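Note to self: keep these together.
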Amino acid sequence: MKNLVKLAIISMCATINPALIIAQDQEQSEATADSSSEVRQASEEVTPSRFTADGSSILIPKTQTKITPISGWEVITSTNMSVIMQEPEVEKTADDIKYQRNITVALIQNPSYMNETRMAKFVEELKDSYGKSANNYTVAESKIFDIQNHKAIMVYAAYTLNNIDLMQLNILVSDSSKQYMLTYTDLASRFSQENLFNQAWESMVSIELESDPVNPMNEMAKYAIIVLVSLIAIVSIIKARKRSASKFYEQESDSIYSDDSDDEDYSLEHTKVSKNNNQSDWNRASEDDDYSDDICSGFNF
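Structure:
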């Protein structure tokens, strides 16, 4: 999500003035790749850097993923925002706007399977990110398509920045290790011009990911494991509570039976004592006439 916010700010700044993208120009790096190689290495030792694309592919920093910038465009590599590609400085348009078309590439570290659920979430992320700096950010269309055997998501959107109407094409694609977000931005008045749009499109879909796409079965297995572990945990808690309750009831039951037994013993003992006392009284009465008279004195015959 942080990458999307950074991308939104940089992409929109690029539409107004490319000097805002990087505060100071860095010395142009010398090409160190072998002359027979068609790939220009954008390594950490030479970034951030600027160079003019010659039609060959480049490596996106910190990855083995390649992309081919539009020939003649300026390429700016960065250690944190990956790649910014923009057309050379242009004359003002008929609307008196000096504007450079641009394509940005940003990395999102966690991989994802490209499906309807991810597309809906991606649209909301775009609205949240660009909506903080732009006015009237509106998604015109979103759909899933294929890029070299990888499922990808495309989102067309329009917005206004500094009273300038802009449009953009966002493409989200993922391999097994990370996601790549590519964004092409241009003036709304010329966004659909076929020759200009086709240039940007061909560059964006030239991306060659370094690994296979996310396997949906692996994703399902991951969620299945999470559900299974959760169910096991719930069942274990329920069983533990049942055992605890059963033990409590057993203890209470033993206590109740113990109290009843004590009461019964006391009752039997008390009855025994009473019977013994009564027997003693009768024996004494039979032996002692005076005692017998005392006992019977209370009765009138």
